UniProtKB/TrEMBL annotation:
<keyword id="KW-0378">Hydrolase</keyword>
<protein>
    <submittedName>
        <fullName>3'(2'),5'-bisphosphate nucleotidase CysQ</fullName>
        <ecNumber>3.1.3.7</ecNumber>
    </submittedName>
</protein>
<dbReference type="GO" id="GO:0008441">
    <property type="term" value="F:3'(2'),5'-bisphosphate nucleotidase activity"/>
</dbReference>
<dbReference type="Pfam" id="PF00459">
    <property type="entry name" value="Inositol_P"/>
</dbReference>
<dbReference type="InterPro" id="IPR000760">
    <property type="entry name" value="Inositol_monophosphatase-like"/>
</dbReference>
<dbReference type="InterPro" id="IPR050725">
    <property type="entry name" value="CysQ/Inositol_MonoPase"/>
</dbReference>
Length: 247
């Protein structure tokens, strides 16, 4: 009997992560390392999905988009290396591998590996939400493109911006309790958020568009303009501030 989908997602994320760590040990040129990381991690995920889920469609950042996915019942949405920039910087740990499964309109399984930290978070063993904390709200944002909406939110809520790399790393920081929310408004693609959102929602966190609308996956255009992941008790407050700003 083959693995359950969530267990397979975890194993695939781990397998790609193992290859990426080995590349980091052996390839010294940063540009060559980044290119090899994207390519080799994609090869791992492609090989394993073909072997274990040959009937399923795949949407990947590192492969041509096959329109057949739009009529498929099951679609794996993967980012073989999220945070390629950070992967190429030897001391950084904020890069990830994303593996998610979409079926009939919903994300039903997912895994986010943070290989440099030795941790993988997945829907087959979700982490419970961290206990409520006191002090300033911490907002995880892009280290290179912090969104204006996050700066506005930080000023209105007296919150602290915490820059880091990969979308997976930022979302898992919320899962672990190292940040209270992750906000992105600069545009992403489905592979950037599908696995992190699947894991976050399994852990009981809120995930939505910045206007509070539902996140949709396996769309004809895989572009997603914005994303909010936060502790559930903060969702109404954060969305209220964001909607007030938009108004």
């Amino acid at each position: 009997m083959d693995e359950m989908d969530s267990a397979l997602a975890r194993r695939l994320a781990d397998a790609a992560g193992t290859v990426l760590l080995e590349l980091r040990r052996t390839v010294r040129d940063r540009d060559a390392l980044r290119a090899a990381g994207d390519r080799r991690a994609q090869e791992v995920l492609d090989r394993e999905l073909r072997a274990h889920r040959p009937a399923d469609a795949v949407l990947s950042e590192e492969a041509p988009d096959d329109p057949a996915r739009l009529s498929a019942e099951r679609v794996w949405i993967v980012d073989p290396l999220d945070g390629t920039r950070e992967f190429g910087e030897p001391d950084r740990t904020d890069w990830a591998v994303h593996v998610a499964l979409w079926r009939a309109g919903k994300l039903i399984a997912g895994a986010v590996a943070l290989p440099a930290l030795g941790h993988t978070y997945a829907t087959d063993g979700p982490v419970p939400p961290p206990p409520a904390r006191t002090g300033r709200v911490r907002i995880a944002v892009s280290r290179t493109r912090p969104p204006e909406a996050a700066s506005h939110l930080a000023s209105t809520m007296d919150a602290e911006l915490v820059p880091m790399g990969s979308a997976g790393a930022k979302t898992m920081a919320v899962v672990r309790g190292e940040a209270d929310l992750y906000l992105h408004s600069g545009g992403q693609y489905e592979w950037d958020s599908a696995a992190p959102v699947a894991v976050a929602m399994a852990a009981g966190l809120h995930a939505s568009r910045l206007d509070g609308g539902a996140l949709a996956y396996n769309s004809p255009d895989p572009y997603l303009p914005d994303l909010l992941v936060c502790r559930p008790e903060l969702a109404d407050t954060v969305l209220g501030h964001l909607n007030g700003r938009a108004a």
